[in-house]
Amino acid sequence: MPEQFPKIGLDINKRDANPAVRLFGRRFFSDQTTLELLVEMLLVSTSPKRSGDLFFDSMLPPPKLLKSPWTKPLEYAPRSRLNLKLFAFFGASKLDTRHQTHREHLGEIQECLQERMSVSGDNPGDVLKTLANLFLGFQGIGMERTWCAQSFMPVCADLLASETIWNESYAARHCPDSWEAIIARYKAYFSVNKHRLLARGGEVLYLQLCNALRREPGEVEAWLAARGLSSFLTSNEKNPSWLRTELEQGLGKLMQETPATVSRLADFIDRGVDGETALRTDAGEGGRNWTSCGWCPEEAWPESYLFAVEMLRICRANLYLLDRLELLESACSLQVMRSLITQAARYSNRSEAQAWRLAVSDPDGDNTTVKHVSRATVQAVSKTIYDGLRHPDILGQTPTKQLDTLYKQADAKYGHKLFITLGKRIGLIVPRKGAGMRFVLNGRLLRLLVVALMPGRRMTYDSFKQAAEAHFGLAFDEAALGRANGWATGVNIESFGYSTDDWLARMLEEAGSLRRLSDSCALVENSAAPQELEDKE
Hints:
This protein has about 525 residues and is α+β, with helices and mostly antiparallel strands. It is about 50% helix and about 10% strand. About 45% of the residues are buried.
C-alpha cells in the first residue's frame, strides 16, 4: 500500500474506501474541470493554512514544517466571496436557479454601491453595469450553474473562492423569506464542503508540491542521474530549498500582476457594502471555516518534483498573465495524467514505474504505422492503470460486499477513464468520441512543452525530444517510438524506415520556436524564457 503524505491515517470506510483513492491519493476525480484543478490549487496556496498548531499565510509551507514529520492534516481557510459572485454572476445564471431572496439581496448590494459612489458626469446605474460586466469578464467556469457555483478565472487572490452550492431542495422545503435568514443558516442553505466541483484534485496537486519540496538535495540529484534528467535541470533547480523559495515567489508574483484596483474593488463589493455576509460565511472555529486536505502517495515525489520545476518555469515565463494561466491549467492536467500512469505502473506487473511511453502521432494521422503504435500505447496506459488498481494489497483492503461497485467507480471516475477524459479535454488524445484513440499535440500543448521543458533560452532539437520523453513519456522519433511499442506490445521496433517526427519540427518552425542550423541540426528556442537564464544546448 502507498505510504501517505501527510501521515493522517486512512478512512477506509468512507473517504478512502475506493481503491483508486488508496492508490492515487484523496482524490483525482473526472467531474473536476481542468480550470478548477488550477483554481483549487491556487485557492489552497493563497488561503491561510495550518497543520496542527502551526499557522502560516505563505504560498508554500515554511521549511520548518516541510522538514518535519507530518502527522496532522493540512487545513486551509478559503473565502466564500458570496457577495462578489452574486454581483458578477447572477445576471448570467439560469433563470430557474434565481431565488427571490438572492435577487433582493443583489438589489441591496447595488443600492449600497450607488450610495457610496461619487460619479462625475456618468449615471451611477451605468457605472454599476460596467462594474458587473468587468467581473463577469473574469468568469472562468460554470455558465450552466447557479451563480454561487461558478468560478472566476484565477487572475488574482481576491477572485479565488471556496465551493458553494445552493441547496435548492432545502430552500424549497423551508421557504426562506430573506437573505438574512439564509445567511443565519449558511451551511444548511449552501453546501460548502461537498467537494463536488472543487473535488480535491487541486488539493492533491498542492500536497504533491509539498511532498516533493521536502526532499534532500542528494536524494533529488541521485534520482535525476538515474533517470538521465540531470542535464535538463539547472543546478539551482536540483536544489529543493531554492526551488521552494523561487516557486513561492513566482506564484506570489503571479497573483499580484492584475492591477490592484481589481482586487480592491472585488474586496469592497464582497465585504465593504455588506460585511455581515462575509463575517457569517467565512467565520468558524477560531474565526475561520477550515477545510481539511487529504493526502497524496509519499513515493510519488519524483514526478511531483518535475511538476514543481515546470510550474516555476511557467510562472517565470515572459508571457502575458492569461497565457501563463492557460499553460498552468494544461500543466495541472498533465500532472494528474502523469501521476495516474506512473503510480499505477509502480503497482502493475507490466513494467517499471518510469518505463511507460506515450507514442505521439502527427495530428493529421497521415503516418499509419505511428498511428497504430500510438493507439497501442493508449490501450497499454489503460491496462496499466486497470492492473495497478487491482494490486493484491489494494484489492485485499477493499470491502468484499462493495467490491464490484467500488471498482466500477474506480475505473469510471478515478482511473483509466479519468486519464482518457483529461487527455481529450486538453487535446492530447483524439478523437473526442469514437474508437481509435491516439496521442497527438496541439498548439497549446506544444507551447507548454517549449516553456516547461527548457532550462534555458534554447536547446538542440534532439535534446528537446529527449526532455519531452523524460518528463512526460512523450515519444516522437524512431528510437523513442520503438521503446513505446516495446512497452505497449512487447515487440521492439528498431527502425521505421523513415523520419517519424518531421511534423513536430514543422509545428515548432511554424510557431517560431525552431531554428535550423543545417540539415542535421536545429535549435528549439523559447522566446518566453527570462533573459537571465543561461543557454542549455
